[in-house]
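I hope you will forgive my troubling you with a question about protein structure. Here, with my thanks, is the record as I have it:
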Amino acid sequence: MNNLEQDLTERLSFIFDKFKALPSYEGAQKRITFAAQPRKNDTLDKLKSVIEAIKSDVVITSNFGCHSFEIDDVHVTIIYLSEHEDFDFFYQVSSYGINSILGKIIKRANLKLSQDGLFYEEKLSVKNHQSKVGEFLISRSVEKIMNLLKLDYSRFMEGFKTQDELFAFVVKCPYLSTIEFANPTKEHKHSIYEKFQVYLIKNGLDNIKGLKLTFEIVNEFFPEVNFFDEVEKLKEMERRKKEITTKFNGREILDYFKGFDPKKIGISMTYFKLSFGNSEEYKEFVIMHSKEEVLNKFQEVVKF
């Protein structure tokens, strides 16, 4: 722990129930990131008071659930977790930025890794309407997720002195496809991807396809989740929502009723949905009737 990190930890810990700096590589002293929980109404005022005591001209900026400031050319970020988020999970999965790479590996299996856990997510399979239907939690154990990916959790917990050590650890995952990381024509938004790309090319590891991480493997690893049962529940929700969306949407209204004012689409659709007793009655009506019957009912209710 460098001097500034230790100083900030000692000065700021009293503000939070949990406050901890994410691990960084040796020599990487230009950025410090803290995880904190919870954020209270007076947190910012207390934070400003402490920072001003260290250096009076520091400007604190707030954005997307975090505060940032600079002291002696070191960029400091405090990320706030909400009450429901698991602090220990977030701390581990965010260490060294490994979540960015693991997230891409897991995405190939149509799963989602976030700071809140490993999830299965179902989206609506309709063009221009690919909203989230629902999701369910698979795990908030970094150890289990590492085991799923066949990575050595105990080695991860030892930490990494350099970023190359982290990359050497990650490439041991048999489900890693290095091709998508090492593609020289692809622009990466995250700096860690660019550095990983250089590492893979430099070490001749840029053409590994990787094994397929299947739902069967996930189900076997997490029997307590009833994976396939939960997936089927969301699939059924998706089928119902898809049927509703394809029968009744702005495009269908404009195609069916020539001359309908596009500016009135949003408010008219809302009025129609609210004309039913509740959202379930509306959904049931759309599912149980043909598209023509739904649109004619829409015209009857909206009266145009």
Notes: The chain has a mean pLDDT of 91. Strands lie at 18-21, 31-37, 61-63, 66-71, 74-80, 111-114, 117-123, 132-139. The chain has 15 helices and eight strands. The first strand starts at residue 18 and ends at 21.
